[in-house]
Amino acid sequence: MNRLRKVFLLLQPRNGIAVIELLILLVLISFRINRHPLPSLLRILDLKGEKNGQLGTEDRKRAQLYWELLSFLLAQCMKVKRPCLFRSLVLFSYYRRKGIDIHVAYGIRKDCGHFDGHSWLVFEESPFLEKTDPSESFAVLYVYP
Questions:
Q1: Which of 9, 47, 66, 126 has a 20 to 30 A CA-CA distance from 113?
Q2: Radius of gyration (Cα) for the chain, nearest Å?
Q3: What is the pTM of this model?
Q4: Which helix (H) or strand (E) segment is 103 a member of?
């Protein structure tokens, strides 16, 4: 999907409201991330909606669009070198509020003599919005909830 089409989709009323919610969450998380230990921050962000939330095909396409928007904002606009933490926290909070039983996972690996971390979402026991399964290259340290 080309960039112009993605921008058009993001500006549709249904997506526009979601984009505003995501941006608000990104700002809130940016202020709180250095003030709270990760478990406390996750509990703060875990405002559960109705427990029967579903993710249909269209919802999954929108989720991919939101993932790409957050990646662009974090990497290109905010110059965050490792956007996965912010992106996973924002999307985790967004989907938990929608009643989706989604989890956030954190992993680590040793790469060229230094440690490298990654965070990602897990939905229905599978990585969500990831091109490959991160647990194949990262040792999973923590999954919430």
A1: 126
A2: 15
A3: 0.89
A4: strand 102-111
